[in-house]
Design brief:
9 strands, flat, 218 residues
């Protein structure tokens, strides 16, 4: 998808990719998941206080929910700390891409930004919706299984310090694998290509920005 760049940042390559998920939505989902898991942990531990043969099971389940809830809470805090860093811009020389063809990718990072690392990963994911046999009424009847078909690091930069008003950029050339499956959605199977931008700031600040791209069959 081609988007017009912000007026203060001229384009370096013809195609500017669109972020897959909004930053506020991503933060909201992480926060909601952590609250849900911690609430489930509280309920399970409360059930474990009641005497009975399943008391230790309830405590074990509550402990597991608590652990995952705390991990989600830490992830939310790290993303929140990184929300003040201007979002990285991703541009391509051409889109859609074709298997076996070359293309260029450019990362643009506006200041102020002080990063320990900044990388761009090329990913191909296969998502399959699988029916759940004999699913109880009121429960989900399907589950989503995800498999990574291709993963490649395109850009890996370290120790960036971009001053306010400055712009850091890096452009590299890459070749899509000759056997790359095209972007598709057929029945219960989806093939999705994306660029994931990972950044690590100072302290606990980290972020991941996903950008969707299309691949056509040769």
């Amino acid at each position: 998808m081609t988007l017009m760049p912000p007026p203060d940042i001229p384009p370096h390559l013809p195609v500017r990719l669109k972020r897959e998920t909004d930053l506020k939505s991503q933060l909201g989902c992480t926060a909601a998941l952590s609250v849900l898991l911690l609430a489930a942990a509280t309920f399970a531990c409360w059930a474990g206080m009641s005497p009975g043969k399943n008391q230790w099971t309830a405590w074990a389940v509550g402990g597991a929910f608590c652990l995952f809830g705390l991990l989600c809470l830490v992830s939310y805090l790290r993303q929140l700390l990184a929300s003040g860093i201007p979002e990285t811009i991703v541009e391509l020389s051409v889109e859609p891409l074709k298997p076996g063809h070359k293309a260029q990718i450019c990362l643009l990072q506006r200041g102020p930004a002080k990063l320990k690392s900044l990388s761009a990963q090329l990913l191909c994911l296969q998502r399959t919706t699988v029916p759940i046999p004999n699913a109880p009424a009121g429960r989900p009847s399907t589950r989503l299984e995800q498999r990574t078909l291709h993963q490649e690091t395109l850009i890996n930069a370290a120790h960036l310090r971009v001053l306010p008003g400055d712009l850091w950029k890096e452009t590299v050339e890459f070749t899509l694998p000759s056997d790359a499956p095209p972007t598709s959605l057929q029945d219960n199977v989806e093939v999705l290509w994306k660029i994931e931008v990972w950044g690590t700031g100072h302290g606990l600040a980290t972020f991941m920005h996903p950008f969707v791209m299309k691949v056509l069959a040769e």
